[in-house]
Amino acid sequence: MKLYNSPIRRRTALGFIGGGLVASCQSRPASQTPAGASPTSPPPEPPQTVVLSSENFARWLDGVRAEAAKRGISQPTIHAALDDLQPVQRVVELDRRQPEFTQTFSRYLNNAVNPKRIADGRAMMAQHASLLASLERDFGVQGRFLVAFWGMETNYGRVMGDFSVIAALATLAFDGRREAFFRDELFKALSILDKGHISLARMKGSWAGAMGNTQFMPSTFLRHAVDRDGDAHIDIWGSVPDALASAANYLHSMNWDGEGTWGREVKLPRGFDIGLSSLDVDAKENIQPLPAWSKLGLRRADGGPLPNRDVAASLVLPQGVGGPALLVYENYRTILRWNRSAFYAIAVGHLADRMTGGEALTTLATAAEPLRRQDVVMLQEGLISQGFLKGSADGVMGSGTRQAIRRFQQAKGLPPDGYADKALITVVTTA
Question: Which residue among 13, 57, 123, 225 is least packed, with the fewest CB closer than 10 Å?
Fold first, then answer.
């Protein structure tokens, strides 16, 4: 019997903040760069100054203690974790920080899937080959993807975050912006301590409470984390078998396709209707089987024919018509449930490919100059004034803005890729 069919193996595990607050939330040394950033990117907007009241926090903790006891958390755990606890102002500053610049796909991918991360990933695959083979057999998740997630989340365990998880979660719950969510995560973190899986001193993570090699939130830990090394503790911080098995169990719970891949780079024919590409993060607007895309003229990146298989795929253009064209499959959407970022999902898939001999993307355009928030606001205001976008300008390049860009492009006879750069902003604002 496969282990993922065993109630013993699936007894515990954990979840992410909306599937999205993971490694990008971490505090890293200056010499380390997260996958979502670029060492050459302009610095972010300075964080807001935040002053939290220790007196009010202490009163708030009294309610937390009472509720923790009602939830069955032992008094020794409550006292050890909450006595003398102080709010961490840096946590709130990081939570409220708004980036001044948008991220560009080429910079993101070049940073996330760099030669060292590829080489290190290959070394990890060789070092843990037996473990990965057993996890693929038991959970149906290919080893290369488990290692790719590991590399993206914490650079193979090198950067797991150095914030106290209890202090970070308590601070965010007390701050109140997302109180219900973080308060519940705090109680789940206390439960993990109470079960003896990890000591308070070792329960470190990101400023948002994501923990260990795989950056699980406490709720995901309690739902999906497993003891793979057989020591009766689930240690996603120090045990690679526990960490990777937990990741495999989590992906299996989301119906990961262990027989398929995430997607592939393709070539578009001349005259192709760019409007058939997807703009939403989930890439669900125009899903067709591979033979249907073949009939439209799409080919592999090397010019060969697409597989003649009934695999549902959609087309994404993360850098517009000037960048790579990618057909993505259901595993791509499963990656998005781990972290709801199209760039992240592509990077995980591409890193898994590169570690196993896959080629670099052939059409990755030169890094474009990132847009400032004020550039996006200017673009949105132009789209609003011309009736292509409803609502107010918020400086966020979301799905609604991309759809409005596509409508503008279609109206002006431009390739409707929904992609914005400074040249497009000039066209919109002078139209």
Answer: 123
